[in-house]
Structure formats: C-alpha cells, structure tokens
Amino acid sequence: MDQRKRKRMISNRESARRSRMRKQKHLDDLMAQVSQLRKENHQIITGINITTQRYLSVEADNSILRVQISELSNRLESLNEIIGSLNSNNGVFGDSITFNEPAADSFLNPWNMAYLNQPIMASAEMFHYWSVLEQKRDREICLVIIKLKKLSLKSWL
User: Fold this and answer.
1) Range of the domain at 74
2) Which of 49, 68, 117, 151 has the fewest CB atoms found within 10 Å of its own CB?
3) Are the beta carbons of 80 and 97 closer than 8 angstroms?
4) How far apart are CA 30 and CA 37, in angstroms?
5) Tens-binned pLDDT, residue by residue, of the chain (157 aa)
6) DSSP assignment, residue 92?
7) How many CB atoms lie within 10 A of CB 37?
8) Which residues touch 77 (CB under 8 Å, ≥6 apart)?
9) DSSP character string of 2-45
10) Rounded Cα distance, 116 and 65, in Å
C-alpha cells in the first residue's frame, strides 16, 4: 500500500510539474505576442505620423501654389490693362499686343483648377486604414493582457 501511495505521489508531482511547464510556456508565448503586437502598433503609429506630416506638407505646398496662381493671374490682368491703356492712348506698340491668359481648357488656367480645392482622398483612406489597423492591434493587446491576468489569477488560486 505504501508503495502505491508513493508511486501515485510521484506521478502527481510529475503531472503538476508538466502542467506548470505548459502554463509557463503559454505565459511566455503570450508575453512574446504582446511584445510583437506593441512593436507592430508602434510601427503603425510611426507610419501614421509620417503620412500625416507628408499630407500636411503637400497641403501647405498646395496652398502656396494656389496663392501664387492667384497672384500671377492678378499680375497678368494688370499687365494686360497697362498694355491696353498704352495701346489705346499712344499707339506706341502699333498693333495691339496682349499677353493672353491660358485657354479655358488649359491645365494652367486658374479658373479651371477646382480640383486644387478638393481633398486628397487617398490620404483620407490611408488614415482610415492605419486607424483600423491600430484599433485591431489595440484589441489584440487587450485580449492578450486579459488572458495574462486570468492565468496569473489562476496561478494564485
């Protein structure tokens, strides 16, 4: 009887040791997963920040170009008025000389550039994509942390 009891006790200890090892391996795997998810989350946030900076830079450049287009259009109009005034008053230039604005369908026509005021849709979609990825990573991290807490609570019981 004593031999059976001792054998069972040794078997139970070995089983408990294996169980603790499995639990520790699972805990280590979850910790590695948390670390990996945090790293990916950091990379996503960095990507969002870089994309945001690029977007803001392009938007600032577009604003500057819109102002320059407006200024140049005003200058051209003023120069045409001056030339028209000189032509009508003095006839100095003989035939009327004017600097024509670009054709109505021209790419450079400032009135034809309504698309400059439109937002860059790819950027908005990209922000949405990055935020969805970030939310997914955050949820995965939370789930792993919850699993870790449950495991640590069970180990204390």
Assistant:
1) 2-156
2) 117
3) no
4) 10
5) 789 999 999 999 999 999 999 999 999 999 999 999 999 999 999 999 999 999 998 988 888 888 888 888 888 888 878 777 777 765 544 455 555 555 555 555 555 555 445 554 445 555 566 667 677 777 777 777 776 666 666 554 4
6) T
7) 20
8) none
9) HHHHHHHHHHHHHHHHHHHHHHHHHHHHHHHHHHHHHHHHHHHH
10) 9
Tokens matching residue 148:
């870790």
Quote the tokens at residue 30. Answer: 């979850």
Helix, strand, or coil (residue 116): helix
- In the chain, how many domains are there? 1
What is the rounded CA–CA span in Å between residue 18 and residue 153? Answer: 19
Q: Is the dihedral of CA 73, 75, 77, 80 positive or negative?
A: negative
CA pair distance 147, 144, nearest whole angstrom: 5
Q: Which amino acid is at 118?
A: Q
Task: Show Cβ contacts of residue 58 under 8 Å, excluding neighbours closer than 6 positions.
Answer: 120
Picking from 88, 108, 113, the residue whose alpha carbon sits closest to that of residue 98 is 88
Alpha carbon distance 45, 138 (integer Å): 12
pTM as predicted: 0.45
